[in-house]
């Protein structure tokens, strides 16, 4: 399945320019990542399919005559006797059809992501952001001033993670304003504006807590990374 294109080349240039401008005000090194999704959630899809299959088995136990009559009409064999083996085969067939049907339904991405519980989405986005942070920002600068802005589109989640020198001076809750600004723009499908707004808010916070030092150099790329 092809990954949606959220940004144009002009959008990338705007975001890179916003990062460069924000970094002029502080010693912070801002890394921006935009992800289509943070996980495949196959386990969640399997869990929903298994749940639907068990529901179907429960319905078969409550109203067996409906399924047995449906089978008779489809096969056009009214003269047979229902043996335990046939009943078990019917139950397995119903469960398999419901399981497969639910898996197929979840190939439609809007439905799949609507069925993922919010706490699971939040946890998976945080875990993916942490991995990206450790690779792209943590301890990658001389002064430990890297900071990651991570946006996961399918989950509608934003994570901001800061390296040691920033985290020691800034409470985690202070990033809430930047996250809110980004989510507000995302609700209006303005992805580039969301990232630019987040960079601007983060840059303003960094300028107060880790102001730019003489001789400061750009240690990390300003360009947005799409994954």
TrEMBL record:
Record key words, sorted: Membrane, Transmembrane, Transmembrane helix
InterPro entries: TPM_dom
Residue ranges annotated for the TPM domain, each copy included: 131-204
Gene3D superfamilies in UniProt: 3.10.310.50
The keyword Transmembrane appears for this protein: yes
Domain of life the protein comes from: Bacteria
Coiled-coil blocks: none
Transmembrane domains' residue ranges: 45-67, 87-105
UniProt keyword Cytoplasm present: no
Protein's recorded name: TPM domain-containing protein
Lineage per the UniProt record: Bacteria, Pseudomonadati, Pseudomonadota, Alphaproteobacteria, Sphingomonadales
